[in-house]
Amino acid sequence: MYLFNTEIVCNQKLSPNIFRLRLKATKDFCREAAPGKFVMLGTDDSLFDPLLRRPFGICRWGEDWFEVVIKIVGKGSCQLSRLESGGAVAIHGPLGNGYPKDQLESVQKPLFLVAGGMGIASIASHIFSALDSKQSLAGTFLFYGAASYSELILRNELTAATAIGLHIHTITDDGSCGRQGLVTQLLATELQNQPQGRVFACGPEPMLKSVQNVLQKVGSEGYISLENRMACGFGVCLGCVQTVLSEDSKSGVETAKVCTQGPVFPAQEVVF
Amino acid sequence: MYLFNTEIVCNQKLSPNIFRLRLKATKDFCREAAPGKFVMLGTDDSLFDPLLRRPFGICRWGEDWFEVVIKIVGKGSCQLSRLESGGAVAIHGPLGNGYPKDQLESVQKPLFLVAGGMGIASIASHIFSALDSKQSLAGTFLFYGAASYSELILRNELTAATAIGLHIHTITDDGSCGRQGLVTQLLATELQNQPQGRVFACGPEPMLKSVQNVLQKVGSEGYISLENRMACGFGVCLGCVQTVLSEDSKSGVETAKVCTQGPVFPAQEVVF
Amino acid sequence: MVDLKVEIAPGVILKNPVLTASGTFGYGREYAPYFDISKLGAIITKGLSLQPKTGNPGVRITETACGMLNAIGLENIGVERFLADELPILRKLKAVVIVNIFGNNQSDYAALAAKLDGIAGITALEINISCPNVKAGGIQFGTDPQAAAKLVAAVRKETSLPLITKLSPNVSDIVAVAKAVEEAGSDSLSLINTLLGMAIDLDQKRPILGNVTGGLSGPAIKPVALRMVYQVAQAVSIPVIGIGGIVSARDALEFLLAGATAIEVGTASFINPQTASKIVEGIENYLDDQGCDRITDFIGSLEKNPI
Amino acid sequence: MVDLKVEIAPGVILKNPVLTASGTFGYGREYAPYFDISKLGAIITKGLSLQPKTGNPGVRITETACGMLNAIGLENIGVERFLADELPILRKLKAVVIVNIFGNNQSDYAALAAKLDGIAGITALEINISCPNVKAGGIQFGTDPQAAAKLVAAVRKETSLPLITKLSPNVSDIVAVAKAVEEAGSDSLSLINTLLGMAIDLDQKRPILGNVTGGLSGPAIKPVALRMVYQVAQAVSIPVIGIGGIVSARDALEFLLAGATAIEVGTASFINPQTASKIVEGIENYLDDQGCDRITDFIGSLEKNPI
Ligand SMILES: Cc1cc2nc3c(=O)[nH]c(=O)nc-3n(C[C@H](O)[C@H](O)[C@H](O)COP(=O)(O)OP(=O)(O)OC[C@H]3O[C@@H](n4cnc5c(N)ncnc54)[C@H](O)[C@@H]3O)c2cc1C
Ligand SMILES: Cc1cc2nc3c(=O)[nH]c(=O)nc-3n(C[C@H](O)[C@H](O)[C@H](O)COP(=O)(O)OP(=O)(O)OC[C@H]3O[C@@H](n4cnc5c(N)ncnc54)[C@H](O)[C@@H]3O)c2cc1C
Ligand SMILES: Cc1cc2nc3c(=O)[nH]c(=O)nc-3n(C[C@H](O)[C@H](O)[C@H](O)COP(=O)(O)O)c2cc1C
Ligand SMILES: Cc1cc2nc3c(=O)[nH]c(=O)nc-3n(C[C@H](O)[C@H](O)[C@H](O)COP(=O)(O)O)c2cc1C
Ligand code: FES
Ligand code: FES
């Protein structure tokens, strides 16, 4: 992973409170980028409010740039979302384990990608990676749910991936686009038909719990990407830990650092 | 005085670390603006670093705008100096007493304006006010000193005022423009010749002390504008107080609030 | 419309829970050009002493990360001039007035309380016990439960005005001090006063403040204040007034959740003189949105289980 | 080239005064990818207990104005695993290692000290006394001078390693605690640990942290830390190590001026893992510019008269 200061190439508003920022990056950084990894982003180092850097998924990248998609939920995301072309940003990354590559690239079984809300930033990274490296997404299904139509972002870019085989199913809480309901309903239905599917999910905790349940019921395997609060992002503060199953410890559980041992975990190992 | 949020019209770099910001203002604000008054400027209210607003002299104004000239000395001035057109600023002002109008406008006697460093922002406000309202500056002398040529700002704008009678003498610590030396040397020489002159001075404390000495020696009268640290700018924190002579108190001195009773004081009354 | 009335001491019912912190609101009238100060729950004056006080020489304020240090040194016009010149103006402005008092020793406090007793236009006294006790060698009254209790008892004897004791945060156990002054007859508590801090000018190799150390206030101290209010509110049965880093209605509401019956706005009034009045509005709007009828239902309603 | 060597305890000479604060530097090796950790004065490990500890459930960190609250709950792998798995790596990385220890009662501390005594690769112990004393009903060792002194004396008996006692800021009189532990045989002091604070989620009406309260760190607390270091450095004759909100070389130099012989970088290492190494460079450059030959000439050289 790398530490460097860089600048915004451009900032595009995707919805009233969601922005896509493209940032310049070093080639080394881009070589290490992979689906499911993240960066810690900071702004001006001489002002201490906000103090800590904030984690965001690496959504797409090229030779010397990468993109993040940021939803405004508090002061850190708000400040980043206001940056314009040329604005200074401090980067630490790529961080985290990312989605397991062998699983992503095995083409034997169908691949179910499940994104809830901003979870799409992480999930889309695999889709864009395939698109940009001209790989096929045959047998890959995207189940994408959001609160409403305006929060279903990156629609054009995702639709472009149908050309390489991606199947897209959207659903919204209010029915303003696609079916009305929760994204796990889509997953549950499809898994009934194809229980051999591998599942990759990212989204809010209630959604991930529900994905875990669905997987357990059907007996399928899958991975979930967590978004616990982070102070450091590289395994030293112990702020982000998640209880996980453990074979070593007596109690049968232990804590794992989401930033370094995750953010992607085998779904059945996470104890919410 | 008024409280309002406004935006930057434009930001012009005058030297490597001095910037002129033009801000939109209400007409009411502009009607109350006067030479020697100041504003408290703040930026984003949702971030608390920097916390307090910062005082800056109102250097020039029109019907619905005003200008400040800001030198970067710390984080508050740095942050303001980075704002670009459209950037948001919070205003409180005009504040302070300003230069006494009757003295400024009495044309009987010569008027000596003395500016050291950023003190020019305050001193120039009278010159621009005369220029913009097409009054004469006959009999008005500007003694302007700075560390070096690059810190002698607003040269063109000030030179324009020679057309309405202003005499300009510059001096720099390093001799890179005008004479080499301190601005009080210019004042001392001129006051010897014209001891009936009224003096208005603004600059760093050592310079103001020296002006006070010169005035005392020659027996002339004058006003100095102070720049004590301020938390509130409107008389409630007692952070900015300056010891001044007093006729009422037993000790012969009392404290005055620079923000409301100043920033302009009769030179002989200030006890440094 | 939500009912914002709160009782900050037995019988002292304020129209809303927003007060202004001593030393940050001048004598009150300085704010009158910015909003109608009678719309606040109450205003608390700059700390008053028996005699006028000139305060500290040298630099008195400096900014720190999300906070400020002050070493004003309790400059004030003295109680006589306050009563003669300021109180009449405040009465004309229809402000609810709480007078903050301090002294160098117990008899100063007692004399101030006696002098202010029965004066029309004063709703309560706030006793600042974060002051060095000259007689006890400069140790603060506020850091020792016994000394604080004796002081409050002495003041209690001299006045029938409701007493709010303002606690210092620079203590090992603020709950012990709170209980001691409750026992001694304080009708109410306010907390926190400033944390003791210091700032240095590196290049000049000198302390920045004329007094070397000063009081830290502003958003930086909010977490400490919130913790102390939460602890004290659970330990005493008199009302608690929360102070420390409050700049918005949301901050104020957090203190109310933690158990404060009212709050005081301090440093934030320097940044924007209208802060206190905006906080009144903000509280009202928030509680209206929540469908809350009476603010008293909201006060102390923090769920004990963390998220 | 300025000589940056400092003696943080009798006989313990470090190559420079920059240390890393316990709990913010992992076990040290996590930082090795970012810079050569042997270039630091010393690294201080995450606090170790006799047995491994899982720490607190729920949310453990939350940001506050210019600071953060943590309620990690002293999660650590235990002294055994540290010695088996971590210390050998640190030795290979040539880091100067100071081990931070804590326990639930005096005998825990004593047992830890005994266990670590004489182990190659450990330069000193830092005793975290900001821990609840289970036997004394949960009162912190660090808030009572007597209890702190007894604890230090007990640890002193078990080890010949230099002892640094890390003081809690949540006290009325930090100088009293400092003097008591000096008397009890501490070779050095480090301060401050975190201030006790709290944060509330307004909309959920709940405390944010799983532990309800947590420790406040970061730039917000620097003024309090600087004041305490200044007070303590004047009152004791053993070296003082300054901690609290240090993010830059200028911050570090302010603590040295105030009398600290060395400093620890805490929260700032989360923001940028290279902070500590940048501070070493920054101190060197600053002192070089000032024409200072030995950092020991700079330490404590604050002029007593304010600007
Ligand atoms: C590995 C990882 C990848 C992420 N990827 C993305 C992404 O691609 N796009 C995106 O928009 N967001 C992403 N997030 C979430 C993002 O980091 C937070 O929204 C952001 O840090 C909030 O900062 P803030 O200052 O705006 O909010 P704050 O002011 O800090 O908090 C605002 C609100 O958000 C909540 N909050 C803060 N941090 C978190 C968190 N980590 N998890 C849950 N709730 C939190 C707080 O409780 C509070 O209610 C990711 C998080 C992680 C850990
Ligand atoms: C009435 C008045 C009018 C002013 N007009 C102008 C103006 O027109 N243009 C301009 O550039 N500046 C002006 N100043 C000074 C300006 O307010 C300060 O430079 C600014 O507040 C510094 O803020 P900062 O955050 O950048 O610096 P900080 O980080 O707060 O401090 C940086 C350095 O500046 C010193 N400092 C901070 N505030 C003051 C102060 N008030 N006086 C002296 N030293 C200080 C500190 O000791 C420190 O060394 C004026 C000040 C006053 C009181
Ligand atoms: C400049 C200043 C002056 C103060 N003067 C007093 C005072 O005279 N009496 C008192 O009890 N508290 C005084 N205080 C403390 C405040 O009333 C308040 O307790 C403290 O600032 C914390 O609140 P805040 O963070 O909202 O400012 C003063 C605070 C400041 C900043
Ligand atoms: C996440 C975190 C964990 C900490 N863990 C410990 C610990 O285990 N032992 C200890 O003595 N101090 C611990 N501390 C306190 C720090 O060592 C330091 O004293 C404090 O954070 C103040 O310094 P700072 O403001 O530079 O962070 C911890 C601090 C943080 C932020
Ligand atoms: S975020 Fe610090 S350990 Fe994971
Ligand atoms: S700046 Fe607050 S009284 Fe003058």
What is the helix content of chain C?
25-40%
CATH fold-type name of chain C: TIM Barrel
What's the overall geometry of chain C? globular
Percent of residues in β-strands of chain C? 15-25%
Question: What about the largest sheet of chain C?
Answer: 8 strands, parallel, barrel
Mean pLDDT of chain C: 96
- The CATH architecture of chain C is Alpha-Beta Barrel
Strand fraction of chain A: 25-35%
Strand order of the largest sheet of chain C: 3-4-7-8-9-10-15-16
Structural class of chain A: alpha/beta
For the record, what CATH class of chain C applies?
Alpha Beta
Number of strands of chain A: 16
**How does the major sheet of chain A shape up?**
7 strands, antiparallel
CATH class of the largest domain in chain A: Alpha Beta
Q: Could you tell me which ligands this complex binds, including any ions or cofactors?
A: flavin-adenine dinucleotide, flavin mononucleotide, FE2/S2 (inorganic) cluster
Structural class designation of chain C: alpha/beta
H/E element sequence of chain C? EEEEEEHEHEHEHEEEEEHEHEHHH
Total separate domains of chain C: 1
